[in-house]
Design brief:
The structure is a single chain. This protein is mainly alpha-helical. The protein has nine helices and no strands. Helix 3 runs antiparallel to helix 4. The longest helix is centred in the N-terminal third of the chain and has 23 residues. The chain starts with a helix and ends in a 5-residue tail after the last helix.
C-alpha cells in the first residue's frame, strides 16, 4: 500500500510534458506521395531518395517542356532537365520554406539550367550596345514577383494532374493540343482539367490580385 502511494506521488510530481507517450501514438510521417512540394524538398535536403523520386515524377514533364520550348532541341532539353534535378538534389538544403513555396524555387533552377545552355550556343545573338533598356523597374519587378509567388502558391493546391496541365501551358507556352500530345492524353481531357484548374485558381486568388 505504501509503495503504491509513493508511485502515485511521483506521478503527480512529474510534469505532464515528461510523461512518456506510447510510441504508437506518435505522429507518423506523411507518405512521400501525399506530401506537399515543400515537405518533399525538406526531405530531399535530408537526403531522402524516395522524396526526391516523387518530386522528380511531379515536375519532370513540366521542366522538360520548359527546356524544350526554350532550347528547341530535345538533347539539350534532356541535358537541362537532368542538370535541374541534379542541382535540386545538391542544393535542397538552401531552400527555405518560410521564403515561399517550392515550385518557384525549383523552376528558378530549371531556368538557370536552360540559360546556361543558351549561353553555350555558338549562334546566340549578341544584344546591340547602347540601346534603351526595356527591363522593368524595381516596382514592376516587385509586383511581378508577388504575383508569381501567389500563383505558385495557388498552383500547389491543385491536384497533380490538373497542376501539370496548367504548368506546361504557363511555364512552357504549350498549346492545349501540344500539352495533350506531350502528356499522351486526349485533348478533351486537357480541356476538362484546364477548366477545372482555372476555376479553382480563380476561387483561390479572388480579390487577392485585384
Amino acid at each position: 500500500m505504501r509503495n503504491r502511494r509513493r508511485e502515485m506521488e511521483i506521478a503527480l510530481e512529474t510534469p505532464a510534458r515528461l510523461r512518456a507517450v506510447p510510441a504508437a501514438a506518435e505522429a507518423q510521417p506523411v507518405p512521400a506521395e501525399q506530401a506537399s512540394d515543400t515537405e518533399l524538398l525538406v526531405r530531399v535536403a535530408a537526403r531522402d531518395r524516395e522524396a526526391f523520386e516523387v518530386l522528380y515524377r511531379r515536375y519532370m514533364r513540366s521542366v522538360f517542356g520548359l527546356a524544350l520550348q526554350r532550347l528547341r532541341e530535345r538533347q539539350r532539353a534532356e541535358d537541362a532537365t537532368q542538370e535541374t534535378f541534379a542541382a535540386v538534389w545538391r542544393s535542397a538544403g538552401s531552400y527555405k520554406p518560410e521564403r515561399g513555396p517550392a515550385a518557384p524555387w525549383l523552376y528558378a533552377i530549371a531556368r538557370n539550367a536552360v540559360v546556361d545552355r543558351l549561353r553555350a550556343r555558338d549562334d546566340m545573338p549578341v544584344e546591340p550596345p547602347d540601346m534603351t533598356s526595356d527591363e522593368p523597374g524595381p516596382a514592376e519587378r516587385a509586383e511581378s514577383s508577388y504575383v508569381s509567388w501567389r500563383v505558385h502558391r495557388a498552383l500547389e493546391t491543385l491536384p497533380v494532374r490538373e497542376r501539370e496541365v496548367v504548368e506546361l501551358a504557363y511555364w512552357s507556352g504549350l498549346s492545349q493540343s501540344e500539352v495533350a500530345s506531350f502528356l499522351d492524353i486526349p485533348l478533351g481531357t486537357v480541356k476538362t482539367r484546364t477548366r477545372s484548374a482555372l476555376a479553382h485558381l480563380a476561387d483561390v486568388l479572388e480579390g487577392d490580385l485585384a
